[in-house]
Write a structure and sequence with these properties.
This protein is α+β, with helices and mostly antiparallel strands and 537 residues long. Helices cover 44% and strands 16% of the residues. A six-stranded mixed beta sheet has the order 3-2-1-6-14-15. Strands 8-7-19-18-17 form a five-stranded antiparallel beta sheet, sandwiched between helices.
């Protein structure tokens, strides 16, 4: 009978402990742990020999109490070490977690030429401060604000590598065993810090963005945003008094929020903008690829075109007496009436198809999240003649990021094939071993190679003789397209330029946006010229 009761008590104790573990809460676990002492106590006290009397019996009871206490304590330690260890480590009030984070030698970030964009400063007491020696590039990397705001952008996306949690397992094991600070892995970017500085200077005080990429490989060469911020302002410095350092970081962050100009927004990949005539590249490529147009096809343009009871006006005609224009001339001079007709010929299904081929309204694979572009807000917008015509000329309900626009030019420059954009080329351990790398990849064949060649020729004529003349570089053939996105009354239009160079052997594609900047031909084209020239030098 006693053996049966012991077995029952043992089963009850196990059931209570298992229930407490599976509950996942400390309160339930402690209640079941305390409750389990009753059946476990019975087991041990029932094992005390009956014939033992006096001090020997008391000794047995004391030993039983100690063993029960040891078992209960062991159960608690085992749960903390193996079941809830991660929760304890990650608890916000865990001082060891904070200390470990402040002592982690976070990996550095370098540009394509080895220039340090994000570094570290190690104090004699072992505390580490993040440094950002290249302010014009730091916001592409993001910020790392230990114990306060955490990480953003690449600092967040690759945090497990930069912090050393991933990468070299031997390095991590050695650090844990020897209680040494973790050493993170280094990022090597495709970015050119020099080009970033130049782009930032070219935008000056104007809001906008510049994105440059290698159209053959998809490597991002520059990703300029303005207004922006210096990541160093958001760094927590553990070498200073905690309250003082934290107050400085919070004040800097609040100042960015209160500025009201979206400084923390990465306009290049998060900002959605009206495109203006830069979208005519998609319309033109679709028309040539489907065969509904040829470069020499004639269109009538008297300065106005009535579509669906609405008049589309064409202020860009260089000769008001001329009423017949070729397809190429319509692109070169950005003639709205011509391209409204082209869009109507391409038709709704064709416009949707080629917009998607150019990755509009699709998720762009990139190192950082990219806001998907928009062709139509209303499901039936393109089925309406006016909606189709206005979309074809770059108005309507179109919205896209500067990255989306530069990818459009890159696809033309790359023989009609869309390259996958990427920013992080390699991740290397502190010892220099590569643990991860990205290689050039082609996303999709957008148009036939001969169509890409035709578009390149037309875009080159646009720079030589059309609206893009201010993008000309002596001795370098440049292909491009301007855009002036109308925003309605009392608002200056967005100024755009996108293109690539050299046109016969593309090495850089660029998109320039100046918010409320005015005419793309006058404002954005000269900036693009300077960026292209700086890269080719």
């Amino acid at each position: 009978m006693r053996a049966f009761l012991r077995l029952l008590a043992f089963a009850s104790a196990v059931a209570l402990l298992v229930y407490g573990v599976l509950s996942g809460t400390d309160t339930v676990w402690l209640m079941t742990l305390y409750a389990a002492t009753v059946p476990i106590g019975y087991i041990f006290f029932s094992m005390v020999p009956r014939e033992t009397i006096g001090w020997r019996r008391n000794t047995w009871k004391i030993a039983a109490v100690l063993v029960i206490g040891f078992i209960m304590l062991s159960m608690q330690v085992l749960r903390q070490q193996f079941i809830v260890a991660a929760d304890i480590i990650d608890h916000p009030n865990n001082p060891r977690k904070v200390t470990q984070e402040l002592r982690t030698q976070r990996g550095r970030v370098f540009d394509r030429n080895g220039t340090e964009i994000a570094g570290r400063k190690i104090a004699p007491n072992g505390y580490v401060t993040r440094t950002y020696p290249e302010p014009a590039s730091s916001y592409v990397v993001g910020y790392y604000s230990a114990t306060i705001y955490g990480a953003d952008r690449l600092e967040e996306r690759y945090d497990d590598y930069l912090s050393g949690e991933r990468g070299d397992p031997l390095e991590r094991t050695r650090g844990n065993v020897l209680h040494r600070p973790l050493r993170g892995n280094d990022l090597y970017l495709t970015l050119d810090a020099r080009l970033q500085r130049i782009g930032q200077e070219l935008l000056g005080e104007r809001k906008g963005s510049i994105v440059a990429m290698n159209p053959r490989t998809g490597e991002i060469l520059a990703m300029v945003n303005n207004p922006t911020y210096n990541s160093a302002d958001l760094v927590f410095d553990p070498s200073r008094p905690n309250q003082e350092a934290a107050a400085r970081v919070r004040a800097a962050y609040n100042a960015l929020i209160e500025a009201g100009d979206a400084r923390l927004v990465n306009r290049a990949i998060q900002g959605l903008y009206q495109l203006g005539s830069t979208f005519k590249t998609v319309t033109a490529a679709g028309a040539l690829d489907t065969g509904v147009a040829t470069p020499d096809k004639q269109y009538q343009d008297t300065g106005v075109l009535s579509v669906g009871g609405f008049v589309i006006r064409d202020p860009n005609r260089p000769d008001e007496n001329k009423v017949q224009w070729t397809f190429s001339e319509g692109y070169m001079y950005s003639l709205n009436a011509v391209f409204a007709q082209v869009g109507l010929n391409v038709k709704s299904a064709g416009m949707r198809e080629y917009a998607r081929r150019f990755y509009f309204e699709r998720e762009i694979p990139f190192d950082l999240p990219v806001t998907p572009s928009q062709v139509q807000r209303e499901p039936d917008f393109l089925t309406d003649q006016l909606g189709l015509a206005s979309t074809a000329i770059g108005q309507g309900q179109l919205l896209a990021t500067p990255l989306q626009v530069v990818m459009t030019s890159a696809a033309i420059a790359n023989g009609g094939v869309m390259p996958r954009p990427y920013l992080v080329a390699n991740i290397k351990t502190p010892g220099g071993r590569t643990v991860e790398s990205q290689q050039p990849e082609q996303l999709e064949a957008v148009v036939k190679p001969e169509v890409a060649a035709q578009m390149t020729e037309i875009m080159q004529k646009t720079v030589n003789d059309g609206t893009g003349r201010q993008a000309q570089i002596p001795g370098v053939p440049v292909a491009g397209k301007t855009g002036t996105a109308q925003l309605g009354e009392n608002q200056d239009p967005h100024a755009w330029f996108t293109g690539f160079a050299p046109a016969d052997d593309p090495k850089i594609a660029v998109a320039v946006l100046v918010e409320n900047g005015g005419q793309g031909s006058e404002v954005a084209a000269p900036i693009a010229r300077e960026v292209i020239e700086a890269h080719l030098r």
